[in-house]
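Hi again,

Forgot to attach this to my earlier email, sorry! This is the prediction with S-adenosylmethionine bound. I've pasted everything inline since the attachment limit keeps bouncing my files.
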Amino acid sequence: MYEIHSPVLLNEVLDKLKPKKGESLVDFTAGYGGHSGLILDTTGNFEGSYLIDRDSQAIDYLKNIAFKNKPVNIQQKDFYQASIDFFNEKKKFDIILADLGVSSLHINDHARGFSFRNNGPLDMRMDQSQQKDAGYVLNTYPEYRLAEILKEYGEEPKAKKIARYIVESRPIQSTSELADLCAKAWPGHSKTNPATRTFQAIRIEVNQELGQLSDSLPIWINLLKSGGRLAIISFHSLEDRIVKKFFNDNSGERYDAKLTLITKKPITAGQNEIVSNPRSRSAKLRVVVKK
Ligand SMILES: C[S@@+](CC[C@H](N)C(=O)[O-])C[C@H]1O[C@@H](n2cnc3c(N)ncnc32)[C@H](O)[C@@H]1O
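Structure tokens for the complex follow:
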């Protein structure tokens, strides 16, 4: 039905989370069930575990293929809302996992508009019932705000120039048009495709990815049982910085530390994994244990 997403750092996640029989899991970015499938195989606790994703295509796959006839709880929500709901319900878990960002299916399906390599609509919504899409951001935001977004979320050195080109070319209707404007700002060759940073920035804005993460982290600590483990895989430096700072601020020698940091340095993919799954190249895994 769908091309399957390959889970990154799978062995490393299992090695650090150490799932045990009967333990409960929340996978806040369940995607296509690569990580959660193996964790649940070990714990066997389907009824007490939850798989969350904001994308209806992923939810469809989890319900009808990956976990068909399995009594696990599968919910289509963004993870901030899911975290608030669990908190209000006073739920606690042994294992929490978040493998952030988009799936291979998002990138490979041109119609979702995430890829600068193939032409598609300016969409980039993980949750397609959401109103705000990339077209809305690109065609209605003021130029100064676009420049800020490209600078902050894309770390794009030519943010102001690209923002100006975007505003001058309105209405922009396709991912190819946007990629062409980025190329115009970067004449000549560069190692990275000149559209990479702009597409990352617009995607982060559309899906509010950084706010979702920083607002959810304090709740995730609350949702862990004592001895519970939280693993987060991030794919770009902005996300990793948020996770690193939050874990450092809540662990260590301080009297009120709630966490023990078990990855002093982030775990990254080995050469074999990078060759077989290039998406793993930028993955960073950080894990903490609740005291
Ligand atoms: C990298 S993929 C996860 C893949 C998964 N670990 C697997 O093995 O199949 C990230 C998934 O998280 C979802 N996602 C990203 N941000 C989210 C958020 N704030 N709330 C809920 N789901 C989110 C995306 O829709 C995507 O399906």
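The radius of gyration is 20 Å. DSSP finds 13 helices and seven strands in the chain.

That should be everything now.

G.
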